[in-house]
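go over both lines:
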Amino acid sequence: MIREIERKGVPGILAVLLLFLLTAGAFASAVRAAWYDNAVTGIGSAVAGAVSLILWFGLTMVQPNQARVLTLFGRYVGSLKVPGLWWVNPLYAKRPISLRVHNFETAKLKVNDKQSNPIEIGAIVVWQVVDSAEAMFEVESYEDYVRVQSESAVRTLATSYPYDAHSEGETSLSHNANEIADKLAAEVQARLSRAGMRVIEARIAHLAYAPEIANAMLRRQQASAIIAARVQIVEGAVSMVDMALRSIEQKGMVQLDEERKAAMVSNLLVTLCAEQPMQPVVNTGSLY
C-alpha cells in the first residue's frame, strides 16, 4: 500500500523573489544581446528565459485543511500539507485533495432486519481523509468509495439486529440508538481504513417499517402496548384489593367468610380493571 510522505517545499515568497530576479536578468541579457547583436549572449538569454518560465510553474498554493499530492512521471513523491505558498519541482504533478470534514446521507435502503421484516433505513456518515496518498491512489474515487461502502455497512448492520426488541435485554435498531451508532461507525471504519479515511460519526437518520407491513406492525405495537398496560392495571388492582381486605380485617368493620371475600374480590377487580365506568348496585338489605 502507498503510505503518505509529508514533504516541505521552498517558501513561496523567497522563491518569487529569486524567480523575479532570474526573469529580470534573462530579460536584461536579451535586451543587451539585441543591442550589441551578440548571438551567443542572445541564445543564453533565451535559454535562461525559458528556464525561468518553467520554474514559475513550481509555485503552488496550499489552502487550510487541504493537501497537494505530488507525483513525478507517475511515481508518488510526497504530499504538501502545510498551508501557504510553496515552490516545488516544476515537473511535479500537483493534485489537490481536501482534508476537511465531509458528511453525507445515504439513500433510504430497503432491507430485511434480523427477523426478516422489510424495513427502510438510512444513515448519516461524517468522515475525513487522514492519509492523502491512500485516498488518492488506493481507490478509484474516494468519495464514491465512501458512499458505496457506507451503504454496504448500513445493510450489514440492519440484517444483524431486529427493528424492535421483543425480549428483555435484546439490542434493537429502534431502542438502542447509541449502541447501534457505535456499531455502525465501527462497521464503516473497517471498510474505509484501507483508503486512508477516518469515520468521525455514523448515525441512523431514517428508520421505518416498509410500507407493505407498516399497518400490520403498527397493530402489533399497539397490541403490545395494550398488553403491557393491562398487566400494570391488573397488578395495581390486585394490590388495591389486597389492601382493602387487610384494612377491613384490621379495623374489624365486618366479618366476611371466604365466599363473601371471593365475591368482594371479584367485584373490585371487575370495577378496577374495566375500561368503562361501572354502575354500582347499592344493597340496602341485610348483609347476607
User: Anything to note?
Assistant: DSSP finds seven helices and ten strands in the chain. Residues 10-98 form one domain. The longest strand covers residues 197-209.
